[in-house]
Amino acid sequence: MKRLFWVGVGVALTAVVVRNGRRVVETWAPAGTVDAVEGATRVSRALHAARDDFRAGVAAREAELLEALVGDVDVDDLRASAPRRKDELRATFGGAPRAGGLSGDLRERGWDDAPTQDPDDDERAPFF
Fold it and tell me: Which burial class, exposed, middle or buried, applies to 5 when counting CB atoms under 10 A from its CB (0-12, 13-18, 19+)?
């Protein structure tokens, strides 16, 4: 019961401080300051809304691309069966994993100490 009482006291004090704080700001702040802060707040809210819309659009597009790529297949099942499928392909085509893995392969080709570049780079698009 004590905690509930102190929560109520905190809420009441917060309301009083905010209300009196706004009155003090309106009284002592230069003309137009409150409007400028409110304008910045509106811009900030608009940017947050735009960011949220963008993230929702990205998530929707990602779902569309995933559906187009794998269809109705469960991605987790694909990941779980990947080692078995790799072994089947190696058995079919006679390949074996390299002893050093990817890093050994890069070392053999002389690519381990420098970043690789896109051979078809047209200097206008970055290579990722």
Answer: exposed
**pLDDT of 13:** 94
pLDDT in the model for residue 98:
62
Supply the pLDDT for residue 15.
Answer: 93
Distance of CA 51 to CAs 29, 34, 41, Å? 32, 26, 15
Rounded Cα–Cα distance for residues 104 and 64 (Å)? 37
How many Å apart are CA 13 and CA 2, to the nearest integer? Answer: 17
- Position 106: which residue type? L
Q: Where are the domains of the chain?
A: 10-71, 73-111
pTM of the model: 0.43
Q: What is the CA radius of gyration of the chain?
A: 30
Nearest to 119 by CA among 127, 107, 110: 127
- Taking the chain (128 residues) in runs of 10, the rounded mean pLDDT of each run is 91 92 83 85 96 96 88 82 86 69 67 61 56
CB 127 within 8 A of CB 118: yes
Q: What is the largest CA-CA distance in the chain?
A: 83
